[in-house]
Every structure is written in C-alpha cells, then in structure tokens.
Amino acid sequence: MKAFFEGIQYLFVNILFAPLDFLRSLELSSWFAANTINWIFMIICALAMVYWIKQLKIFEDAGTEKQDTTAHSFLK
C-alpha cells in the first residue's frame, strides 16, 4: 500500500506539477513570461464578458426578454 501512495506522490510531484515548477523558476528571470497563462485567461474572460453583454443588448432591443417578477411560476 505504501508503494501505491508513493506512486501517486511521484505522479503529482515529478510529472503533473513540472510545468508549474518551470513557471516558478521562470518568474525569477521574467515576471511577464511567468504570468503569460494568467494574461491569456484574463483576455479570454474579458472577451467572453463582452460577447455576453452584446447578446444581452440584442435580446433587450428585440424585446424578447421578460423582466417582470412573475416570469417564473414560483414567484407568483
């Protein structure tokens, strides 16, 4: 049983966390390069939010969005 848990430890520490260890060592030389993944995720989230707001505006302009409080039967 001990070998099983040591195998799990080896998998996570030496294989799955290797990219994160690389980013941690890269931070000492270049902060911007180490945080590239964060910048990519922030850009994706910003684009998704802009798309969502544009879609809300399209439905509001078309008048198909119900905004009254009785839109659902459990609110009556």
TrEMBL record:
Superkingdom of the organism of origin: Bacteria
**TM annotation in the entry:** 32-53
Q: Which UniProt keywords apply?
A: Membrane, Transmembrane, Transmembrane helix
Record protein name field: Uracil phosphoribosyltransferase
The top of its lineage is: Bacteria, Pseudomonadati, Bacteroidota, Flavobacteriia, Flavobacteriales
